[in-house]
Amino acid sequence: MLNNLERVQILSDLLPSMQCFHGSTMVIKYGGSAIKNINLKSKIIEDILFLYYMGIKVVIVHGGGPMINYWLKQMNIEPKFFNGIRVTDKDTMELVEMVLVGKVNKDLVSLLNCSSNIAVGLSGKDANLVTASSFFSDQPDNYTGKVQAINLEIIDLLLSSGYIPVIASVASDLNGQTYNINADSVAGAIAESLNAQKLILLTDTPGIMLNINDSSTLIKNLNIKQLEDLKNQNIILGGMIPKVDCCVKALKKNVGAAHIINGSIKHALLLEILTSDGIGSKLVA
After folding, report:
1. 3-class DSSP state for residue 29?
2. C-alpha distances out from residue 109 to 54, 115, 138, 215, Å
3. Residues 228-271: pLDDT tens digits?
4. What is the C-alpha to C-alpha distance for residues 269 and 249, in angstroms, rounded to an integer?
5. Please, which pLDDT band fits residue 53 given cuts at 50, 70 and 90?
6. CA angle 258, 262, 267 (to 5 degrees)
7. 60 pairs with which residues across the strands?
8. I need a surface site. Which of 8, 47, 216, 267 has the fewest CB within 10 A?
9. H helix runs in 26-132, sequence order
10. Which of 55, 15, 65, 23 shows the shortest CA–CA distance to 184?
């Protein structure tokens, strides 16, 4: 157990970080196994609240892949992916919207609001926050989407009023057609539009590794050129592709830094943001 002096020393050591980040904006993409494990979820919520009370403007974007896959299997629908992006037919789209907007989003909002009334749940449809278009334009029955435009009006209103927007990655196109959009891409697009200081992706992997089966090959710091080289060498593959792509795009649009970290580590967010070594991969321009 820490004595009182040790506790105060820890707070004192945090002061430079608190001064540096106070008033900044961070976009956190919450996903992976941490979204369905109640113990992990509670620690992530604690971290987000800590950042909020430090004076950081926090925006949460979430997917819910594990939850979606569970319910698809309950309905005897086989999940399908292409380059790490979910392929979404009509039946899958209806289920995705129910799970993300009706279940995952409201669970997160409820947990955040247990301590105070600070979280507001949204999807991309609300106030046309996200305008979508088809990811597969040659496949009219595929409702996998991409971000066409971001409308910051509702996010700016909530942040300026002291709220945490919690956004499900479902949106409509200009004709009202609903699309499922990769949550990493939505988080990246919102971070770009906000000129966020940080974009943080919570995943099930330690970060970017030279060997995906060996966590000791984690690369702590990378720039855009190194990321492109790793893609060309087929070291960055599968579900990591959309994560890296959205980070690179955000960095090119003046987002300060992007982080890919393992959300299953206790207090992962605080360890990455408030310690000098971090726990995952930090990406810069």
Report:
1. strand
2. 19, 11, 37, 33
3. 999 999 999 888 998 999 999 999 999 999 999 999 999 999 99
4. 22
5. very high
6. 95
7. 28, 166
8. 216
9. 38-53, 65-74, 90-97, 105-112
10. 65
Q: Biggest alpha carbon distance in the chain?
A: 64
User: Helix or strand or coil: residue 126?
Assistant: helix
Give the distance from CA 119 to its chain's centroid.
Answer: 16
Q: Are 154 and 122 in contact (CB under 8 A)?
A: yes
State what percent of residues in the chain have pLDDT above 90: 69
Residue 239: half-sphere exposure toward Cβ, Cα within 13 Å: 18
Question: Cα(99)–Cα(90) distance, rounded to whole angstroms?
Answer: 15
> Which residue is listed with tokens 């301590």?
115
CA 201/CA 246 separation, integer angstroms: 10
Using alpha carbons only, give the angle 29, 113, 22 rounded to the nearest 5 degrees.
60
DSSP state, residue 218? B
Mean of the per-residue pLDDT values of the chain: 92
Q: How far apart are CA 220 and CA 54, in angstroms?
A: 25
Tokens linked to 217: 């090959």
Tokens 């605080």, residue?
A: 270
Dihedral (C-alpha) 31, 63, 252, 258: value to the nearest 10 degrees? -10
First to last CA, the chain: 41
Three-state DSSP class for 149?
strand
CA neighbours closer than 13 Å in the CB half-sphere of residue 62: 38
Using CA atoms, how far apart are residues 27 and 18, in angstroms rounded to an integer? Answer: 17
**In terms of pTM, does the model score above 0.85?**
yes
Q: What are 79's two structure tokens?
A: 């999940």
